[in-house]
Automatic annotation (TrEMBL), chain A:
This is Dolichyl-diphosphooligosaccharide--protein glycosyltransferase subunit 1. Pathway: Protein modification; protein glycosylation. Component of the oligosaccharyltransferase (OST) complex. Keywords: Coiled coil, Endoplasmic reticulum, Membrane, Signal, Transmembrane, Transmembrane helix. Residues 579-606 form a coiled coil. It is found in: Endoplasmic reticulum membrane. Subunit of the oligosaccharyl transferase (OST) complex that catalyzes the initial transfer of a defined glycan (Glc(3)Man(9)GlcNAc(2) in eukaryotes) from the lipid carrier dolichol-pyrophosphate to an asparagine residue within an Asn-X-Ser/Thr consensus motif in nascent polypeptide chains, the first step in protein N-glycosylation. N-glycosylation occurs cotranslationally and the complex associates with the Sec61 complex at the channel-forming translocon complex that mediates protein translocation across the endoplasmic reticulum (ER). All subunits are required for a maximal enzyme activity. The keyword Endoplasmic reticulum applies. The chain crosses the membrane at residues 434-453. GO terms for biological process: protein N-linked glycosylation via asparagine. It is a single-pass type I membrane protein.
Amino acid sequence: MGLRFDLLLFTIALLSVPVLSDLILSRVDRRIDLTSQVVRTTSTLKVENAGSDLVSEVLLAFPDSQAKHLAYLSASSTEGKGKAKGSAVSFPVEIVHPKGMPPALTFYSVSLPKGLGKGDSLTLDVLVVFKGALQPFPEKITQADIQLVVFYETAYYLSPYAVKVQSLSVKLPDARIESFTKIENTKIHGSEIKYGPYENLPPFSYSPIVVHFEANQPFAIAQELVREIEISHWGNVQVTEHYNLVHGGAQSKGEFSRLDFQARPHVRGASAIRHLVAKLPPRVHSIYYRDEIGNISTSNLWGDHKKTEMVIEPRYPMFGGWRTAFTIGYSLPLQDFLFQSDGKRYVNISFGSPVNEVVIDTLIVKVVLPEGSADISVSAPFPVKQGQETKFSHLDLVGRPVVVLEKTNVVPEHNQHFQVYYKFSSLSMLTEPLMLISGFFFLFVTCIVYMHADLSISKSSPSYLAKLQWDEVQAAVQQVRNIINRCLMIHDKLEASLRDLSRTGDVQACKSARKAFDGLLKDLSKDLKPLLASLQTSPQAAQILPKVEELVGKERDLQERMMAKHSTVVDSYEKKSSGREIENRVALQQQKITALRQEVDDLLDLIDEI
Amino acid sequence: MQRVPSYISRSVAGSYDNEAVAIFALIFTFYLYIKTLNTGSLFYATLNAIAYFYMVCSWGGYTFIINLIPMHVLLCIVTGRYSSRLYIAYAPLVVLGTLLASLVPVVGFNAVMTSEHFASFLVFIIIHVVALVYYIKGILSPKMFKVAVTFVVSIGVVVCGAVLAVLIALVASSPTKGWSGRSLSLLDPTYASKYIPIIASVSEHQPPTWPSYFMDINVLAFLVPAGIIACFSPLSDASSFVILYIVTSVYFSGVMVRLMLVLAPAACIMSGIALSAAFDVFTRSIKFQLPGATENSERDAGETSSNSVVAQNDVAKTEKNEDAVKERPSKKNRKKEKEKENVEKPSVKSQIKKKLLILPLEASIIAIFLLVLLGAFYVVHCVWAAAEAYSAPSIVLTSHSHDGLHVFDDFREAYAWLSHNTEVDDKVASWWDYGYQTTAMANRTVIVDNNTWNNTHIATVGTAMSSPEKAAWEIFNSLDVKYVLVVFGGLVGYPSDDINKFLWMVRIGGGVFPHIKEPDYLRDGQYRIDSQATPTMLNCLMYKLSYYRFVETDGKAFDRVRRTEIGKKYFKLTHFEEVFTTHHWMVRIYKLKPPKNRIRGRAKKSKSKASSTTGTKRIGTKKKNPWH
């Protein structure tokens, strides 16, 4: 309650301060909305110029204790009167330090571009949003307790101008009201407390009031939120939001009992954060919700063509003072957010968090532009701290320019669009694919060059020559093997023709086949000769030569025997010998042929191994 | 290889473990060993030693390498296949490998001290002796050589005898004979359950069931015998090594489920050999017949022989199947089968040789088609197994109910809570199964974790869990523990919770601190938590933390895992307070109450005894610190 004493003290001090301006507030209506964790004060001021000079600014005063919670302030006026209201015109607001004003006050000045002439009046709508102005009291509660908060305000409008008529209404959530300050003309009407009307009060009138009431809505505060908006000109805007969330209400103490929480959720743990709703733009896709240990499975998504809503549930219900951290990410189509004007491109995207119940202590928005963007400028509807970074991603050469915007005390009212202007040539999009293509191209080219070029240093060194010779020998041996194999194949076919003979008895066909094979075999043996000759001359072949020669000899032997057998069989067919007779005559030859064949096969394997 | 379910079981993201790396290292070491053996290049030998070092770094299973390779070397020497290549492959590996291995902190001097490595040194000596013999044989005349042999052998026997005696004396002086518990439990499958409950308590250390073989290896189980036969047909150094590898790994996998992992690559190699041999035969016969297909004579000839070939094929197949079937029921028969296969080998070989070129076109095309189909089905099975059995991360459980999939994400809920809502340097005590998870996901220090080297520490936690509340509080407080985490499945029916593991805690705790006795927790030899349970059981910390306020959920306290009502329903915790319980009650976290809350009661007592001697104090500390 020390605060109240302070306020009283400086109220007394204020009374002696003279009025600086000729403005008079003929009527002030204030409505304070306490139904959520942010305090929204909507004041309608009717400003009258009682002096003779043109007045171009209106001062709004807040005690420092309130000003430090002030997150958002806007002043606007609707032109026209009554029901025929025109569009609202908002006026620029800035913080000023006028001279001769009492201490412990913060002044904001609303500039009126047209000015206010003598005797003119203007209706000014001022919306002020305070963050963290509700203080939990008591500060620590158990799971079973309800959360009570206190709120300090003045019953009289604090202003450097005299106020003729004023009233104040405080809207509370539909719950118990613990206590509130009663002064004259105080009425309570359901969940709304009304002060006033009060008439003809001098400047800097002040009468502190305190409201102590039950507020069970969750106090979700993001201590830090980093939004990363990555633009890809291939058609995608990737938004990644890292939340660092804390329940800013009354601290939880004592045991947490899941049993109580599940059995009587609205009594035990009424102020816990169960879920949050993120309102995402339409046509959003590839949404994820995770934290550092993986996907969080408790989320739900639905949407239509106007909006998409995602209900995200933290891993555990959050009680006062509990913390959590998570990341949500989603992709948006590029054409909804990227536009072009005057040869420049600009991104037009919302600033704040899509989760409306969350207030943010520090919000950092990073807009990652494609590599090669230049001439970057930012236009935001409210002052933010700007910076630049460079981010390296895959295949980046110089890095992507990143615009960093930082703002403290962010409330849902800040959820407005801001623009980042930059220049970017569509051709730069192709650099990365081209880089990849050329990289692979050069890789293959080097491979081709390496395979085809002879990289040995000395062409006359003995080892090089030996290698060359050895290659030759190997090639020759390979050819020999091929020829032998073909010979063997012909042998098989000869055998087959013999079988044919035994089946059909067609001697002529068999003979003609024999002739054809003879010719083939002769050709093959002709081919074999130069190969053998070359092998004999080569010194490298010394080791393998005997085997090869043996192989060739054996093959020739086999060939002869085969022929002999063939002739025998054909002969006997011509003589019309019986099948048994033929078999008897051939049996011996057949045995030798099989044995030779075996040897040839073995030799082939042997040469293979060498 | 990458598809084998048992390998997947260790390499999917959910349970990525160092074994996934280790198996690569294992296979790479073997590959380099064989490469060295084939080329005789010192370069590969060095690489081999480095690969071995990599393996030692990654997994304790490196002892498998250091025993398998000497076995193979010994086999080569005994079968007279000694060559300089073998020497080059082995000697540098032992010297460099041992030096490098002792650089790894966990191994250190164990690399030369424990029995697991003795085999390699013994073989190292033997290979030197053999090398010497071969060298002498090279420079001496045959006659001189005979003389030298008798000389060397007589001296060698004496020296070997002396060395062996020293070794045996050394080894016998240590209680476990120099073998670590795990290795011993491999050699003697009943060892662990007798002496080291902590090793036996791990489900992975149990012997596998037959379905798990089929689940993990599937078609490969049938291809492996074929691969063994294919290996024998040209028996080289490399193929004998592969055979040795498969035989030992089959044995090891039979002892422990976990070592199925070692079997998997071996089975893959084997079936790869089998498939490649089969494809070789089939494609060659197709290639031979395609040009001659136009000739009728050819085809007739083929057909005449085809019948017999098909018959032979069938015979061979049934033989293989029989082998596979026999392999299932008994492992003891394995050796016999080996012999049988050996006997079969020449006949099969000659059959193959004969029919190599005369397999009919249609048969071989169909066979290739069938093999491809087999492979395709295997791929399907592997994908299915990977998706259904192994991809489900063990910390996120799912259940199918009538209204769709239900996810139990309680573990991560608890870990996330710990990581965000406790102090960074708070210590969390839980059973060691959750140690690594807590460290990684909650980023908190744990008392015991899945690295089970320190048996005493685990026993301390086991003791605390099986002690009454006050004693447990003192143990935990002395360990500077702030939070105690228990896993409780009784509400949703999650069977592998701490109550079911509790008997192991008692056993492990009792193994080190004898005042915890297993029979105290059993009623007539039965483990129960209902009204028949023993008072020790009903008063132990684990019971209390698991069932605290459980009765209020349904009024009866019906445990859905044990399918019974619990014994003691209404009780209060005096030294612990519940700070967090997850959505399905699967993880419950308790905080140790600060000492001042409970000192009042004790202060009175100690005041009354204030005049007593310090002797009581000593007794008191003895009781309270059971681990001293």
